Each structure stands twice: as structure tokens, then as C-alpha cells.
Amino acid sequence: MELQPREIKQWLLQANQLFQENKDYLTSLDQAIGDGDHGINMARGFQEVKNKIEPTEYTNVSDVLKDTAMTLMSKVGGASGPLFGTAFLKLSTSLKGADNADFQHFAEGISAAGEGLKQRGKAEQGEKTMIDVWLPMAEFLKSQNEFSGDEIESKAKSAMEATKDMSAKKGRAAYLGDRSVGHLDPGSVSSYYLFSTLAEIVKK
Ligand code: ADP
Ligand code: MG
Ligand code: MG
């Protein structure tokens, strides 16, 4: 299976819908261990992504992802804008040169995104950040040879849930240290939304 530009677009537009619907929930997660703006950041950023990509005709997947990356970097304040921007930019770069994304290249792109996040955030796995969803997902995809929506969904969900027991070492939640244990990491929940909508797209 290959993802065409219009399917990548659909993925991002559906993700936007989830960010709008769950804006208050994401904000409440960030109120518990951060500064309470994560829902606002994601909803604003993805609304801008929608405004940019919806009216644009794309002939290759790389360009949709690049516009998404640039929009998130420039429109989202806080840590998450540059981080999600970096992830989408790495994915875009990995997929450069082909019109559509085949599984192999997509999987490599998610790995590159995970590595980009580590570098940009100076974070490791287990430090209660969005990296704790992206890296396990990259590992999982590398072990596969085709898109499997159900498995992508369940992998992303368990990775997101695992952040609850972690003690934050990076980002604002790190100020709380062990008091962050028992709370989900907001950026990991947003990352779950991205992979959960991807799962829906590949199931169609
Ligand atoms: P801010 O913390 O600047 O208010 P957001 O609330 O939008 O930005 O995003 C917070 C999320 O960003 C966290 O839940 C975490 O997943 C992610 N994050 C924060 N710092 C880092 C980092 N250094 N590396 C990776 N992810 C990070
Ligand atoms: Mg915040
Ligand atoms: Mg903030």
C-alpha cells in the first residue's frame, strides 16, 4: 500500500479535527504537569495547517508534510511547535523524490522523525516526552513490512499510556520531577492522536 498526497492531507485534516475536539482535554493534562497551554497550542497549530494545506493541490507527499512542518514551526508557541515541526520536516525529507509514500519509506521517515526529536529536544526515551510515543512507533514500524492500522493504533496507545508512570526529566513537567508520576504526558497524547488517525487512514 502507498499513501498518496491526498491521503496524507486527509490524515492531517483528521488529526486537526481530533485536536479541536480534544483541546480542553489536552489543556487539562498540561495544567496538571505543565503550563496549561498544550491544547491551545495544538488546536491553533493544526487549524493553521488546515488553512494552508486544504486549498493547496499537491503532487507529492513530501510537499504536504513540508508545509505542515513549516506551519507548525512558525505558528505554534511553546516547546511542541518546533518539536512537531521537526518531526514532520524529517518525515518530509525522507519521502522526498517520490509522489507517494510506500510503507518502507514511511517507516524510515518515522525513524528519522524520532531521531530528529531526540536531537532537537535533547531528550532520551523514558523521560516522559512525546519521544516516548515516536521512538516505540519507529521501532515497531521497522519490524513490519506493511501498514497495519489496528497494530499502529494499539502500539501508539500503549506507548502513550506508558508515559503515565514515568517521572519527567525534560520540558516544564521536569520541574515537578517525581510529582509528575501518575499523569499522562500531554505531548504523548497528541502524538497518539497523530498515529491513531494515521491508523484510520491506512485502514480505509
Ligand atoms: P510548553 O511546554 O512550552 O508549554 P506544550 O505545552 O505545547 O509546550 O508542549 C509540551 C509537550 O512538549 C510535553 O508534553 C512533551 O511531550 C513535549 N516536550 C517538552 N519538552 C521536550 C523535550 N525537551 N523533548 C521532547 N519533547 C518535549
Ligand atoms: Mg504547555
Ligand atoms: Mg507554554
In round numbers, the mean pLDDT is 97
CATH-level-2 architecture: Alpha Horseshoe
Class of secondary structure makeup: mainly alpha
Q: How many DSSP-defined strands?
A: 2
What hetero molecules are in the model? adenosine-5'-diphosphate, magnesium ion
Shape: globular
The whole-angstrom Rg is 16 Å
For this structure, what is the CATH class?
A: Mainly Alpha
Q: How can the largest sheet be summarized?
A: 2 strands, antiparallel
Description:
The protein is 67% helix and 2% strand. The chain is mainly alpha-helical. It has a single domain (2-203), classed as Serine Threonine Protein Phosphatase 5, Tetratricopeptide repeat (Alpha Horseshoe), CATH 1.25.40.340. It has a two-stranded antiparallel ribbon with strand order 1-2. Helix 8 packs antiparallel against helix 9 (186-203). The radius of gyration is 16 Å and the shape is globular. The mean pLDDT is 97. It binds adenosine-5'-diphosphate and magnesium ion (MG) (2 copies). Residues 6-200 form the DhaL domain.
Write the topology of this structure.
Elements: E1 2-3, H1 5-21, H2 23-33, H3 38-53, H4 61-75, H5 80-94, E2 101-102, H6 103-121, H7 131-142, H8 149-162, H9 186-203
Antiparallel strand pairs: 1-2
Helix pairs in contact: 1-3, 1-4, 1-9, 2-3, 2-9, 3-4, 4-5, 5-6, 6-7, 7-8, 8-9
This protein binds adenosine-5'-diphosphate and magnesium ion (2 copies).
